[in-house]
Every structure is written in structure tokens, then in C-alpha cells.
Design a protein that fits this description.
Helix content is 43%, strand content 18%. The chain is of the alpha+beta class. The chain folds into two domains: 103 residues; 130 residues. Strand 3 and strand 4 form a beta hairpin. Helix 4 packs across helix 5 and helix 4 crosses helix 6. It is elongated.
């Protein structure tokens, strides 16, 4: 199946133009080889993909393809940044399939839907923003959780960074980068040690430079769900006046 992904380079100035570049990508040990070409003209991004046996409704495969082509296109933009000193970011907007239908681009992870119980799109939204805006660590952690969905290759690192930020929020700014602070997280959010360690251990190799490493025994969606749940509990903890969360309202999170 052939499809085209369209987008823009941000910021809009200076304009970026890169001639068409072609690549092949083989997923893991499979025999399937996808071909990808990237062209950027006056900051308009065009990515053409030929993907055998592709189903647009296969969210898992779509996520892998989009993650890889985004990484490739951003790689070209990042090389231009390295040369020029101007920061360039690729933002994809839509997918055009063989039949000419334009599918607005969405980046989501259904596995986290419903995990946020501490805030909604109502009066709690503004109240929560008032509470967390003075805490940059929480804002950075929220950005990391967003990156875990928007940049699939970065998910394990992003989740670990978010949880590390939660540790510093609960342990205080003077907590060292080692193990100090984790007992505070376990007590405040009612989580056991294995629950947390799944997140931190899964990120060890990717955050030490092996960004493409994937452990076949690691369920990445489970890592994301756990990081999401811990952030939700942190917000509940703040709303309750920094009182430790306990059962029955907050059952022990077991690893």
C-alpha cells in the first residue's frame, strides 16, 4: 500500500528545503521491507511510503510506521539544524491513502483513556493548572508523558523521566539522583517497588544511548499506563493537601 504523509516544518521561518531522499526500512527480523522517501520544500513536508500488507486500521503497525517516518523526517530537519543553528521541527498533519482520501493526523494511545481521574475538561482543569503551574517539574513531567505518545521511539525514556520528576516533587529538590526519594513515592502514591521498577528498568538501555533497543519482554503500553497512573495519583495527592493516598480509594499499585 502506498500512502503519503503531509506536514510542516516549525517555525515557519526560515524556510527549509531538502531534496527528496529515499530510504528502506526493515522491521526487526521480519521479511517486510518498507520504502520511505522524504522531501521538504519551503518547509512543506512530503513523506511517501510503500508498505506491504498495510491496514490503516491496524493502530499498532500504523504507530510503528508513523514513528519511523517521523524519526526519519525529523532526522533530516535535525541535520539542517546542526548545519545552520536554526531549530527545525517536523509536524505531520495528515495521511493521504491510495484512494485519495485525506485522513487528519491523530496521535493517540487508547490504552491510557480513562486513567486520568483527577482532572477533566471542566472547572477542575483551571484549578489544576493553578496548582501545578508553580511546579515546573510537574509541567515537564506532563510534557514527557505527551512525548511518550507523540514520539513512540522515545516512550520508555519519556516515562522514566516523568516518574523521576514525580520522585523529585515528592522527595524535595535536594534528593540525590540515586535511590533517595523512592520510598516517598511509594508511600504518597501507594505503589510498591516492582510497580515503579518496571518503568525505570525498561528505560535503562534506551536512555543510555540505545534508543532503538526494545526488550521483547517489555510491554511498552504497560510502562506508559503505569507512568500515567502515577501522574494521576500525584494530582490526587496534591488535591488532598499532600496526604498519603490509601485504600480503599487508592488500592495498592502492585508490580
Amino acid at each position: 500500500m502506498h500512502m503519503r504523509l503531509l506536514g510542516q516544518v516549525w517555525p515557519p521561518e526560515p524556510k527549509l528545503t531538502i531534496p527528496r531522499l529515499g530510504f528502506s526500512w526493515q522491521e526487526g527480523n521480519t521479511e517486510r521491507v518498507d520504502t520511505i522517501s522524504v522531501k521538504i520544500t519551503d518547509s512543506v513536508v512530503e513523506i511517501d511510503c510503500d508498505v506491504p500488507d498495510f491496514d490503516l486500521n491496524d493502530n499498532e503497525h500504523l504507530g510503528k510506521i508513523v514513528g519511523h517516518v517521523t524519526l526519519t523526517a525529523q532526522g533530516a530537519a535535525s541535520l539542517a539544524t546542526f548545519i545552520s543553528g536554526n531549530a527545525f521541527y517536523v509536524r505531520l498533519e495528515c495521511i493521504v491513502t491510495d484512494d485519495g482520501i485525506v485522513h487528519p493526523f491523530q496521535v493517540n494511545n487508547p490504552s491510557v483513556v480513562g486513567l486520568c481521574t483527577s482532572v477533566g475538561f471542566d472547572q477542575t482543569f483551571s484549578a489544576t493548572m493553578v496548582d501545578i503551574t508553580p511546579e515546573p517539574l510537574i509541567l515537564h513531567a506532563m510534557s514527557d508523558l505527551t512525548a511518550a505518545i507523540a514520539q513512540p521511539h522515545y516512550a520508555l525514556v519519556a516515562c522514566a523521566r516523568a516518574v523521576e520528576a514525580i520522585r523529585h516533587v515528592l522527595a524535595g529538590p535536594d534528593a540525590d539522583p540515586g535511590s533517595v526519594g523512592w520510598p516517598a513515592v511509594r508511600s504518597a502514591l501507594n505503589a510498591d517497588r516492582p510497580y515503579l521498577e518496571l518503568i525505570t528498568r525498561a528505560s535503562i538501555r534506551p536512555r543510555h544511548g540505545e534508543r532503538m533497543h526494545r526488550d521483547i519482554d517489555t510491554d511498552e503500553n504497560e510502562v506508559i499506563r503505569r507512568a500515567w497512573t502515577l501522574m494521576d495519583r500525584l494530582l490526587h495527592y496534591r488535591k488532598r493537601g499532600n496526604v498519603d493516598l490509601t485504600e480503599p480509594d487508592f488500592p495498592l499499585l502492585r508490580g
